[in-house]
Each structure stands twice: as C-alpha cells, then as structure tokens.
Design a protein that fits this description.
The structure holds two protein chains of two kinds. By secondary structure, chain A is mainly β. Chain A is about 0% helix and about 55% strand. Chain A is built from no helices and twelve strands. In chain A, the strands form three sheets. In chain A, strands 2, 5, 6, 10, 11 and 12 form a six-stranded mixed β-sheet that branches. In chain A, strands 3-9-8-7 form a four-stranded antiparallel β-sheet, with no helix packed on it. By secondary structure, chain B is an all-beta fold. Helices cover about 0% and strands about 50% of the residues of chain B. Chain B has strands at about 5, 10-15, 20-25, 30-40, 40-50, 55, 65, 75-80, 85-95, 105, 110-114. In chain B, strands 2, 4, 5, 6, 9, 10 and 11 form a seven-stranded mixed β-sheet that branches. Chain B has a four-stranded antiparallel β-sheet with strand order 1-3-8-7, with no helix packed on it. The chains are: A mainly beta, B mainly beta. The interface of A and B includes residues 35, 50 and 103 of A.
C-alpha cells in the first residue's frame, strides 16, 4: 500500500510571507515518484513538479522550491514571498511502480491574504 | 493541442437516473484514470485502464462502471445515480506506468445528484 499525508488542511498567510506545505509519504517500493499539483479556484489541476526517488536534490523554480528527504519520507513545498495568485489547493502525490497508480494526499488549501 | 477533454462540464441528475461521462485524450497515452474529488477527501481513484480493452477497479469503484473500447476514450457510467455520487470527477491519462511521468488531467465534471 502507499499513502500520502498532508497534515495541514488549511493555511493562511499574508502576502509576501514565506509558506511551507508539508507532505509525508509511505511506500514499500524503492523506485517511486513524487509530485505536487496546484488546483486554483478555477478548478483545473496543474502539474508543478515530479521528483524520482533517486534524486534527492532540492529544486528551485522561481519562488517555488521543493525539499525531498528520504530519511524522513517527506517532500515539502515552499513558496517564497507568497502572492495572492498562489491561493489554491495544493496536492502532493505519490506513484510507485508496484502500485501502478498515483495516490493523492487530501490537499492543503492555501489562502494568501493581500 | 487538446490534451484531455471531459464532457460534460456540468450536470444535474435526479436520483436513479443514469449518465455517462466521456473522457477523450489525443496524446496516445496508454493509461487512463477516473478520479472523484470531494471536500476533505482529496482525489480518490474510481477505475483505471492500462490499455484499450482493459479496466480495473480503484479505491472507490462501487456504483460506477467504465469502458475503454478505443485507446483514446475512457467512459465512466453511473447506472443509478445516488446523492453520494455528487462530486467533481476528473479524468487523467499518462504514459505507461513505469515512466511515472505524472498525469495530464481534464478540466473536470461537476455532477450534482438531487
């Protein structure tokens, strides 16, 4: 079985604050992929990043950064200098070959207050 | 450049009515999936298909049927709709499982059963 836990259901921050969204995963496979998706108020699901289990390098893309730590089974997502347009529900997801499906966390709703 | 197209986008059904949701993809993806999204539950897998002519049950298959007669289409059927099936339904497609490249999602179908 595989599982993704996003313990933060809702977060509110004031614009320009940094915010970290937590994601903890469980899988027995040694090869797996982790993802983050964004769902803005318009409802579509937007792919943000994929990381495979052999690549623990942190990644930065503009104001977004991701911290992958196998030792703690975590794949956290940080938004620096948050903006109102970052307001959305963010989903962490896990894919492993043995399971052949993507399992999603329940999502974290981020509200950025102007 | 359509990607994944879901029809209809909105639908209201009366309890006991039937309907079919259509998902079409033009990326030659082998794998296709149907998820439902409910508040506080994240995305849960209903059924999926690993190729033309194949289907398999996901996490919450009861009350739904699917068919994959053509590679590009994946149909989700509700034979006798119930209020508990009020949800937002997302279709997704991907390359074969070993790649773990992530999904391309449709824009969703908002279904209300009254």
């Amino acid at each position: 079985a595989q599982k993704v836990t996003q313990a933060q259901t809702e977060i509110s921050v004031v614009e320009k604050e940094d915010v970290t969204l937590d994601c903890v995963y469980e899988t027995r496979d040694t090869t797996y992929y982790l993802f983050w998706y964004k769902q803005p108020p318009s409802g579509e699901l937007v792919f943000l990043i994929r990381r495979n289990s052999f690549d623990e390098q942190n990644e930065i893309s503009g104001r977004y950064s991701w911290n992958f730590q196998k030792s703690t089974s975590s794949f956290n997502f940080t938004i620096t200098a948050s903006q109102v347009v970052d307001s959305a529900v963010y989903f962490c997801a896990l894919y492993s070959g043995g399971y052949q499906k993507v399992t999603f966390g329940i999502g974290t709703k981020l509200q950025v207050i102007p | 450049n359509a990607g994944v197209t879901q029809t209809p986008k909105f639908r209201v059904l009366k309890t006991g009515q039937s309907m079919t949701l259509l998902c079409a993809q033009d990326m030659n993806h082998e794998y296709m999936y149907w998820y439902r999204q409910d508040p506080g539950m994240g995305l849960r897998l209903i059924h999926y298909s690993v190729g033309e002519g194949t289907t398999a049950k996901g996490e919450v298959p009861d009350g739904y049927n699917v068919s994959r007669l053509k590679k590009q289409n994946f149909l989700l059927g509700l034979e006798s709709a119930a209020p508990s099936q009020t949800s937002v339904y997302f279709c997704a497609s991907s390359y074969p499982g070993g790649d773990g490249y992530g999904y391309t999602f449709g824009s969703g179908t908002r279904l209300t059963v009254v």
